[in-house]
Specification:
This protein is an alpha+beta fold and 67 residues long. Helix content is 30%, strand content 27%. The chain has a three-stranded antiparallel sheet with strand order 1-2-3, with helices on one face.
């Protein structure tokens, strides 16, 4: 297993690619170096905090995610 892989980022990408809707905390709040997202589910919610990089922001914008 590659230790350099960000597990949260990979799961987030997989959820976006299958069409799940995630809610984003505005970038100017909480932690400026990370992106916080919430994936509402039937029996709860999944919370992600991924590192904010140009690559990550470009991916989210390419997938038409509202950040």
């Amino acid at each position: 297993m590659n230790e350099n892989i960000d597990f949260h980022l990979e799961i987030q990408k997989a959820m976006i690619k299958v069409g799940k809707t995630t809610q984003y905390v505005p970038l100017f709040r909480e932690y400026p170096e990370s992106i916080s997202t919430i994936l509402p589910c039937f029996k709860g919610k999944i919370m992600f905090r991924i590192k904010q990089t140009d690559e990550t922001l470009n991916f989210l914008r390419e997938q038409e995610q509202t950040i």
